[in-house]
């Protein structure tokens, strides 16, 4: 059955009186001016303004809108506008599609701009530095993270830190580094540059390296602005202690003539020295369970450098150093036993630190470094640090004829390369023990000039 159509002069009253058709087809009531405007009434009673025309010989019908939302005059004006477009050879449907597409593009552009603004506000250089520091901490490099955090906080200004990380330029990074360098902090400038470069490189590689945290990907780093900035060479230290200076150093640590004997921080410095110049941070992380009394072997963990997992570093100790560690083990166990008795619980001996003032946490390396500085001031003369002591040990070991390979194993230097990484599985236990025996003999010879060797041995057991 064909759709019913008729023509009248439309008014609001006439439109209101229009009744739904009896059949299943809508009816169309056309206006007399313009003739292209009609009211469509569906069997359900819905009434809409409709534009009807032809493009060539093809009928065209476009719904303008419901009669309860469109004024009649507005509907007539819209019908006339659409007819003008057709008379100009323009299909109103295509124009509408173009308008919708343009509006959609505008909306998408606005959303993209907002997302970019949000990203820039969120993924700043400060946020990149924080994410990189978190990655360092998760990798067990807490000391490096602490050092980098201090540098970032002190030397990255607020404006640069708040800038989107991907928008930071080489000129801005260079200005940061130059400012530190011109303040006379050459090493700090070089380390700041290195840490910034590492942060940018980590974010740049994150989309492709599953070992890096996924939260670095969102920064969208595609290039490293630090690459354009030359590295600042670290001034290599060359300070070594003479035998006389080392004798004075050991005398202060032994507290010769003092009733109480060495303090705990002094014991840490002594053990680092007698164990072959070990890194203080690694030594202070040692636990009671890391010492094997049957073989007099102390296990340390070397996480220095780019290792993802710390490397086991075994020290087959010579007698004096073994005596020190045995005394430290007994001290830790006795203190835990007393504390457990006071608290009414069983002693927990498994996770005890060798170096701990109260047994809860390991001694801070800074405490030991500060003690070394005090001793240095007390001795007088040219200043030295814990690192200089380590350098002195290796220099003297070389003078004693200890091979470079054995020294590298003993001091846990950066052992790398294909041979070391994949093929050389020799533990160097005998070589390290022999070297430490020779080293202890050399230290005894240095101390015995002023003190009898018996004094050196006797004081190991006087640890408070």
UniProtKB/TrEMBL annotation:
PROSITE patterns: TYR_RECOMBINASE. SUPFAM superfamilies: DNA breaking-rejoining enzymes. It comes from the Bacteria. Residues 236-437 form the Tyr recombinase domain. GO terms for biological process: DNA integration; DNA recombination. One of its GO terms (molecular function) is DNA binding. Belongs to the 'phage' integrase family. This is Putative phage integrase. It comes from Thauera aromatica K172.
